[in-house]
Amino acid sequence: MAEYETVVGLEVHCELSTRTKLFCGCANAFGAEPNTNVCPVCLGLPGSLPVLNEQAVELAMRIGEALHCEIRPSIFHRKNYFYPDMPKDYQISQYDEPINVDGLLELPDGSRVGIVRAHMEEDTGKTTHVGGGGRIHEAGHSLVDYNRAGVPLVEIVSAPDITSAAQARAYVAELRAILVATGASDGRMEEGSLRVDANVSIRRAGSDELGTRCEVKNLNSLRSLGRAIEHEADRQASLVDSGERVTQETRHWDENASRTHSLRSKEEAYDYRYFPEPDLVPLVPDEALRQRASSALGLMPAARRARLQAALGGAEHARALMDQIGTVIELSLDDLVLAASAGGADPKHALNRAANELASQGERARALDPVSFASLLALESSGTLSATQVKAVLPELVEHGGDPAEVARRHGFEQLGTEELESAIDGVISASPTEWERYVSGDARIAGFLAGQVMKATRGRANGKVVAEALAARRAGVSAR
Amino acid sequence: MERISIDEARHVARLARLDLADGELDKLTGELSDLLEHVEAIRRLDTAEVPPTAHPLPLSNVFRPDEVRPSLERAEVLAAAPATEADRFLVPRILGEAP
Ligand SMILES: [Zn+2]
What we know:
The complex is a heterodimer of chains A (about 475) and B (about 100). By secondary structure, chain A is of the alpha+beta class. Chain A contains 16 helices and 15 strands. Chain A has a nine-stranded mixed sheet with strand order 3-6-7-10-1-11-12-13-14, with helices on one face. A three-stranded antiparallel sheet of chain A has the order 5-4-15, with no helix packed on it. In chain A, helix 7 packs across helix 9 and helix 15 crosses helix 16. In chain B, helix 1 packs across helix 2. In chain B, about 40% of the residues lie in helices and about 10% in strands. The model of chain B has no long low-confidence stretch (mean pLDDT about 90). Chain B is mostly helical and about 100 residues long. Chain B has a domain of about 40 residues: Histone, subunit A, CATH 1.10.20. Chain B starts with 5 loop residues before the first helix and ends in a 7-residue tail after the last strand. The interface between A and B is large, with 65 and 38 residues. Strand 9 of chain A pairs antiparallel with strand 3 of chain B, so a sheet runs across the interface. The complex binds zinc ion.
């Protein structure tokens, strides 16, 4: 079998976080009752006229700026096709004069992926196929909800610079972090805010020639994206090895079956008859618009990584923590880590709790008060609370806020330092009198055993350091008598 | 002068989902070719000094603030549909794939 390289270009559709649709005042809201956010414009009723949403323009420009694109004058076109997801029978999109061109995205590992364009367009409605197990061609009929029709999108098209499934995943993860940082998108793949199509081809290792590519659709998670690229590259390699040719076509990724299957051959390529949208005037990013877009731009993930690395004592120290750093930046918990560190917490400790316990709380963890996070970490490092207790207190702090010491008290955790701990020690002494005698008579090796028994009796709620101190104090009391 | 072929006319008709009889196709092929000739005549003009125009109105950046306006009542919307089910537009079985 010959050696092949995988070549991937990605098209990412990003729904913009505007209040309204791209060309009308209908709400841009996920999960609304079907066909409640529709009006004559987004239903394409005769006589209605689209008017461009200024905020969507600003968000598109922020994306362009964050991806180092040239932001340029642009116009809208009609992309004509017959499919019930667009009531107008055309989609308003940008064609040969898009707003953002020629950018680049640098990945955390330093590799760079070119951005060909990032243009504006409107989303389509949502179709549901009824009967035939939801498969389009076996369905009896289909149902359409036009709430999503007209929602603003930016489609970001990468150059075919991606050479592996892992790099493709890293690209989408970084792009998502950038889109969230710009405020342009909530980045939720599972809700369809971010949708990825992959153009996959293979070529002989070392060759500059591009092979015939297939477009893979239905990639609903980073996991699907990685797996689909690997499977598609393997499929193409076996075809070429057996002397066959790859046909340019669109393929559908089936996550359950772990394979792609053909949707349509590009031989009967769509002819969209693009023509300039006569109802919209040109969009010219002037100085005022550019100013607004760049001043609203948040700190980008690369800068935020650097900031965290510095807090952790430099890139060298941070190298082993790259996964944790990636997690907190992806979940926008880095501000919290930095604020807690500024409040006296050990940055590594804060990073660790944020990347594990807080990350498992999902997006609501962002709402945690940094002061309360820092005092909880202080309670842990002073030995007042055990790691297990901290993990129990954190979700409640995220959910309801409040003073960590108070929340810990309510969980009965602080009593453990006094009465409960002492009675646990009493229990251990009477259950293991021989071991206790050895300890009292100075056998230091048995201390770990006794502490372990106390931890067991308190179901891990005791702090190891505090237990050791309590045992020592008890022994001192016995010896003094 | 380039004239369009009857096959090209048939292709354009198919894209627009027009079911034309052969006689109609002949007639429209001729008319489309005449239109192209007219465009060709315009193309012969010297436009070196004329800036490209994207729109007949000398306007750009016509915007709308990002403020929610009331949408239509769903009952009113669905009343205009030939068929509905579960508060959605019902369409016949889809034969092509999504573009
Ligand atoms: Zn609308």
